[in-house]
Write a structure and sequence with these properties.
The chain is built from nine helices and eleven strands. With 301 residues, the chain is an alpha/beta fold. It folds into two domains: 77 residues; 204 residues, Glycoside hydrolase/deacetylase (TIM Barrel, Alpha-Beta Barrel), CATH 3.20.20. The strands form three sheets. Strands 3, 4, 5, 8, 9 and 10 form a six-stranded parallel β-sheet that branches. The protein has a three-stranded parallel β-sheet with strand order 1-7-6, with helices on one face. The chain has a two-stranded antiparallel sheet with strand order 2-11. Strand 8, helix 7 and strand 9 form a beta-alpha-beta unit. It is globular and about 115 Å long. The chain starts with a helix and ends in a 6-residue tail after the last strand. The structure holds zinc ion (ZN). Zinc ion (ZN) binds next to loops.
């Protein structure tokens, strides 16, 4: 009887243990299962999101190409960049001999795009319905792409002014980089490659001008220097512009590279005075493509 009783208890304990183990097992499964399914899900999500990323990247690239083509077409339609005629490729031009009836002048702005001052100059040009030419620095285009887009969309012409604006003598590789990387960033920003080049400081001997000449750029200097980089007073700056202004001339000013408040302050008066003298304003491409033009100052071909 006692044995039967203890057997019964032993059975009871065993059943309890089996049940406990079973519960634990199910519990484990419950615990593990969600994790497993979570892992499965997250790997699903990862796979999906990778698929989405690849798709998005592709779409972004397609969109970029479409935008670039659109901008490029817009830029070409607006004459922002021209195919320089072969007779002007590699030619250095500081002014153009224009027919007597054509009293034209080209305003040029260097060293931008520059926060604030480029936009202020664009505002003044727009108010006066004038288009100018901007010789831009590659690293500034990289930092201010929207400003370059605005320069383009308002019909101004754009030229290459190197990446770093260096005066010192450069190795052929460094000179190539200065010009070609700027060309690339302009293309990536507005969809056209520039065909006009202005060497920093007008320096023709440090390597960048030679590279540009050999790569079919027209090299654009100036006939009238505002000397605004040395920040003269507004009346002095205006005087500098008009001292050597002439029909077919090219005026050098700066929208970037430093404080340009004097240039901005002088610009409306410069425009007013040119107009009162009967001038109209053209971009460098317009100046180069004018009928009967003859580049007057060909230094070298
Ligand atoms: Zn410059």
């Amino acid at each position: 009887m006692e044995n039967k009783q203890s057997f019964f208890w032993l059975q009871k304990i065993l059943v309890t243990l089996v049940c406990f183990a079973g519960t634990l097992g199910i519990g484990f499964m419950i615990l593990i299962k969600p994790n497993a399914s979570k892992a499965q899900n997250s790997s699903d999500i990862d796979t999906n999101s990778t698929t989405v990323d690849v798709g998005t990247e592709k779409r972004v690239e397609q969109l970029k190409t479409i935008m670039l083509t659109t901008w490029g077409k817009e830029a070409q339609a607006k004459g922002v960049a021209i195919d320089v005629p072969s007779r002007l490729q590699g030619v250095i031009i500081s002014q153009v001999k224009v027919p007597a009836k054509e009293k034209v002048i080209a305003l040029t702005f260097d060293d931008g795009p520059w926060p604030e001052s480029t936009a202020q100059i664009l505002d003044i040009l727009k108010e006066n319905n004038i288009k100018a030419t901007f010789f831009v620095i590659g690293q500034n285009v990289k930092n201010n792409p929207d400003l370059l887009k605005r320069v383009m969309s308002e019909g101004n012409a754009i030229g290459n002014h190197t990446w770093n604006h260096l005066y010192r003598f450069l190795s052929p590789q460094a000179a190539t980089y200065e010009v070609s990387s700027t060309e690339d960033i302009i293309y990536k920003t507005i969809g056209v490659k520039p065909s006009l080049f202005r060497p920093p400081g007008g320096i023709m001997t440090n390597g960048v001008a030679s590279y540009a000449k050999n790569n079919k750029y027209a090299l654009i200097l100036w006939s009238s220097d505002s000397v605004d980089y040395s920040r003269p007073s507004v009346p002095r700056l205006i005087h500098n512009v008009f001292r050597s202004a002439k029909p077919g001339g090219i005026v050098l000013m700066h929208d970037g590279g430093g404080n340009r408040s004097n240039t901005i302050a002088a610009l409306p008066e410069i425009i007013r005075r040119f107009r009162s003298q009967g001038y109209r304003f053209v971009t460098i491409p317009e100046l180069l493509l004018m009928d009967n033009y003859k580049p007057k100052h060909i230094v070298k071909k």
